[in-house]
Specification:
The structure is a single chain. The chain is mainly alpha-helical and 382 residues long. The chain folds into 2 domains: 279 residues, Orthogonal Bundle (Fic-like fold), CATH 1.10.3290; 69 residues, Winged helix-like DNA-binding domain superfamily/Winged helix DNA-binding domain (Arc Repressor Mutant, subunit A, Orthogonal Bundle). It is 57% helix and 4% strand. A hairpin with a 4-residue loop joins β1 and β2. α1 packs parallel to α11, α11 packs antiparallel against α12 and α13 packs across α14.
Length: 382
């Protein structure tokens, strides 16, 4: 990586913007620490992918992984929605939190639509623009040109261009830079491992900052899309936003070191450490889900004639872990009294827990399941 030059600052009218160097080139890896980290990251990612193939109905569990990613990636940008709120229906959200909730829902929609698009389209700037349109439409960013590459200057940090922490390239450079980045993703004439390409691409995307808003979320979304598009993952079971959020200072510092010191090595080490930790944590989560499901099914078998409906409800709870009696009535096609009865049975066997404390409009939560996605994760590798 020693030959890498990150770019140069260019004088604009009243400020200097940063023009990153093209990345569609060979990158030679000689640092032994990177080689070891890359080997471990590929191994753990492969184990996670294999484990995901063995789990029945894995897509139901992936729904919660996406919800956590949507929540955490949005949290990095300042939203306050928790995972438990993200999986609630709109009618159950505190009106003061609705804007944050909508942003998380939009991220979830963007992720799901993008993964679906990969079945018929290659990973491309066009696909990211489509994701960006979904991300910003009907949210606080709806006036920030959803789905469009910016045609004006943006900045990071500070209140204006005069005191900005970082100023991305001028909009006149974006077409060439984004074309170079897209070619890098698909260039089979260079021997750059996929995880190294993903790391470099995330840095380059964040440095280009091609949209007026939502660059961080799309840049983090890109990582999962790249892993799926290159078949390192069959399903979107790995997300790095939780790792980036818990090590936010190191995340921003590592990106800044590339721009200011051309230190790509430090960024790649940080990125690969994120892959290692996140792969391990994701597999642990799946193992805990399998154990929880088995335990719940044993309890449900004691419900007698309600066992069949109980299994249907449990299946539903792994996708929507917060429900009320109306949800259960509709989903299971039951009368209102029957829905209340099966909810109370689930409360007795400690699958559901009432969380509102009132006698009306009560909500019930599959707490043991939600806890898997909210408990503290493992330690930082570096």
């Amino acid at each position: 990586m020693k030959s890498f030059e990150s770019g140069q600052f260019r004088q604009q009218h009243e400020y200097k913007s940063f023009s990153p160097s093209p990345v569609n080139r060979q990158f030679d890896i000689t640092d032994p620490d990177i080689i070891v980290l890359l080997s471990n990251a590929n191994r753990l990612l492969g184990e996670l992918n294999a484990y995901g193939k063995l789990i029945p109905d894995v897509d139901f569990f992936i729904h919660m992984h996406v919800a956590k990613e949507s929540t955490t990636s949005s949290m990095i940008e300042g939203t306050k929605t928790e995972v438990s709120e993200a999986v609630m229906n709109r009618k159950d959200i505190n009106p003061e939190h609705i804007d944050d909730w909508l942003e998380v829902q939009s991220y979830t929609k963007a992720m799901n639509a993008s993964i679906k698009s990969l079945h018929k389209l290659p990973l491309s700037i066009r696909l990211l623009k489509d994701a960006h349109k979904i991300l910003l439409s009907n949210t606080r960013g709806k006036n920030k040109s959803p789905g469009e590459i910016r045609s004006s200057q943006n900045w990071i940090g500070g209140s204006s261009l005069k005191n900005a922490f970082f100023i991305p390239p001028h909009c006149s450079e974006l077409g060439e830079l984004l074309s170079d980045l897209e070619k890098f993703w698909h260039n089979d004439q260079i021997a750059v491992p996929h995880l190294i390409r993903a790391a470099i691409s995330h840095y380059q995307f964040e440095t280009i900052h091609p949209f007026l808003d939502g660059n961080g979320r799309i840049g983090r979304l890109f990582i999962t899309l790249y892993l799926v598009s290159e078949h390192l993952l069959d399903r979107p079971t790995l997300y790095l936003s939780d790792f980036f959020n818990r090590h936010r200072a190191a995340y921003y510092d590592s990106l800044t070191m590339v721009r200011k010191q051309s230190d790509l090595t430090q960024w790649i080490k940080f990125f690969l450490s994120g892959i290692i930790e996140s792969s391990s944590n994701s597999r642990i989560s799946f193992e805990q889900i399998v154990k929880l499901r088995s335990s719940c099914e044993k309890h449900i078998s004691s419900l007698g004639r309600r066992s069949e409906k109980g299994r249907e409800l449990l299946h539903h709870l792994f996708k929507c872990p917060t429900v009320d009696s109306n949800d259960v009535q509709k989903f299971l096609n039951l009368t209102h009294p029957a829905a209340n009865n099966i909810i109370q049975e689930f409360v007795k066997i400690k699958i559901l827990r009432e969380i509102t404390g009132g006698k009306k409009n009560r909500l019930f939560e599959f707490s043991d399941y939600l806890e898997i996605f909210t408990r503290p994760a493992g330690g930082f590798v570096l």
